[in-house]
Write a structure and sequence with these properties.
Layout: E1 6-8, H1 18-24, E2 33-35, H2 53-61, H3 70-80, E3 93-96, E4 99-103, H4 114-117, H5 120-130, E5 136-142, H6 146-155, E6 161-168, H7 174-181, E7 188-194, H8 197-208, H9 211-219, E8 222-225, H10 232-251, E9 261-266, H11 271-282, E10 286-293, H12 298-305, E11 307-309, H13 330-338, H14 341-354, E12 356-358, H15 363-369, E13 370-374, H16 377-391, H17 397-413, E14 419-423, H18 431-437, H19 447-458, H20 464-467, E15 478-481, H21 485-493
Parallel strand pairs: 4-14, 5-6, 5-8, 6-7, 7-15, 9-10, 9-14, 10-13
Antiparallel strand pairs: 1-2, 3-4, 11-12
Length: 495
């Protein structure tokens, strides 16, 4: 198997190995690393229909992380996908109301980010050893809710690393916030900012591109990396669960060999659905990748018109992890559909300077692979209630967005191929919104009373890690303005 090399989407950094790309996180020119080609599966899917999640992960990830040895990669996988997940399937597939829900919330932090962030610390520390890195690796991450906790849980007390997470104050659910604020680990820090997620994400990218700051950290024997989905080490593990889900359908004879399926993904930063695109390019029989947005519907407009325009109102919704107007991973798709780094760089400059770019030249390719729509909070609530009444299955707010859009897709296109809906979080993380959707009074109730009410109503067991938050002390209380994030990173590096 020939080695894949990784290059920046903007052309300024080329020829990195997979492990080097994982360590760097973001390219020096501000671009995102992507493989110089997307490899095809070197196995027939039926061969793996009885394989464990761990074995599927190895067979898929080895094709993209080619400089990791078999021993190294298997050790990373076994360390990540173990008893920290509360189901042996790791990502079980549940059928309800004419859709297959791929439940990605059975890890430590009860959200889909665990699927990749459980393995990223192993990939990163292995990469550091492979490349002779002795500097402390400082993980710098912006979060709209789930990435922060999952990254902190993954990197907590990992030798040779530290992690700083920024999140928008008031822009995450209370459970998401508590999960971060109570996180243990002497090498962890979380800081709330006065602004939204896009403010945090933009500032993080600026910090990565600050060469003077890089030199200042180097003097302290510190180097930055990222746990956001801009890191290719986040994206590659996400491809696995698409393959795993299809294999489950094949095993249960819900699809025949080679029969295509559709997938609906709730997404804001475009990383989760991009992993599905990679899976399709590698050989998974996927028809349409259905992109589901909330009222921050910048992706819907782009995939329908080919024009990306962030100059619009920002809404705080009941699906806060999708409250994003600048979708970083879209940059990788732009490269794969053009293979023109100069054009991608020009579009990204236009987005920064003008707030928009026109990529309608690739509209036919976008429409060939993707279909997009969005829902309001009112429609999201309606979908939670309808699905529960029909099936007794309880959706979280993000999954409800996806299922509503999946229904819209079927109704508008007549395409009735099997539909996998990615279920990205436990309903308990958004208990107030879910209970309100089910017609239950939530006024004056704290998060833990809401959790108990939801358990009584739904019958779902309360995740022990959420229940434990009731008595967990708050360890992080830092707050800063968005223009103070650089200083916050430096202060942490000095510890």
């Amino acid at each position: 198997m020939s080695e894949l090399l990784y290059n920046s989407t903007r052309g300024g950094e080329t020829g990195c190995t997979a492990s080097q790309a994982v360590l760097k996180g973001l390219a020096k020119d501000g671009g995102l690393f992507m493989p110089d080609r997307i490899p095809a599966f070197d196995f027939a899917l039926p061969e793996l229909k009885d394989a464990s999640y761990q074995e599927v992960a190895y067979r898929v990830m080895r094709l993209l992380l080619t400089d990791y040895t078999e021993e190294e990669l298997r050790a990373c996988i076994e360390g990540a996908y173990d008893e920290k997940f509360d189901t042996p399937e790791i990502a079980p597939l549940t059928f309800a109301d004419d859709a297959y829900y791929l439940e990605l919330f059975h890890g430590k932090t009860i959200a889909f980010k665990d699927m990749a962030l459980s393995i990223l610390p192993y990939l990163m520390t292995t990469a550091a050893k492979k490349n002779g890195v002795t500097n402390k690796i400082e993980i710098l991450t912006a979060t709209s809710g789930d990435t922060g906790k999952a990254a902190m849980a993954g990197f907590a007390d990992v030798p040779g690393t530290g992690i700083v997470v920024f999140y928008p104050k008031g822009g995450v659910s209370r459970f998401q916030e508590l999960q971060m604020l109570t996180q243990k680990g002497d090498n962890t820090a979380v800081v709330s900012i006065e602004g939204n997620f896009d403010d945090a994400q933009t500032a993080v990218k600026q910090i990565f591109g600050d060469r003077a700051f890089e030199a200042e950290l180097a003097e302290r024997q510190v180097q930055l990396s990222s746990a956001n989905s801009i890191n290719i080490g986040r994206l590659v593990p996400q491809i696995v669960y698409y393959v795993h889900a299809y294999l489950e359908l094949l095993k249960e004879e819900k699809v025949a060999e080679g029969e295509s399926i559709n997938v609906c993904v709730p997404t804001g930063n475009f990383g989760n659905i991009l992993a599905g695109y990679y899976a399709k390019r590698m050989g998974l029989p996927v028809g349409k990748l259905v992109c589901a947005s909330n009222e921050n519907n910048v992706l819907t407009d782009f995939l329908r018109r080919g024009i990306y325009d962030r100059r619009r109102p920002f809404y705080q919704t009941m699906s806060p992890s999708m409250d994003i107007l600048v979708s970083s991973n879209l940059e990788r798709l732009l490269y794969h559909l053009t293979e023109d780094t100069a054009q991608v760089a020009a579009w990204m400059r236009s987005l920064t300077e003008e707030g928009s770019y026109d990529a309608s030249m690739i509209l036919s390719a976008l429409r060939e692979n993707f279909w997009a729509a969005f829902t309001s909070d009112m429609m999201t609530e309606e979908e939670i209630r309808i699905v529960y009444e029909r099936t007794s299955y309880t959706l979280d707010t993000h999954t409800a967005v996806a299922y509503r859009v999946a229904e819209d897709y079927r109704r508008e296109t007549g395409d009735l191929r099997p539909m996998i809906v990615l279920s990205t979080a436990s309903p308990y993380k958004f208990g107030a919104s879910v209970l309100q959707a089910l017609g239950k009074d939530t006024d004056g109730l704290d998060e833990f009373t809401l959790m108990e009410r939801l358990q009584k109503h739904s019958g779902m067991p309360i995740p022990p890690r959420l229940a434990a938050l009731r008595t967990s002390p708050v360890r992080h209380e830092e707050i800063c303005e968005k223009d103070g994030m650089r200083d916050a990173v430096l202060d942490f590096a000095r510890r």
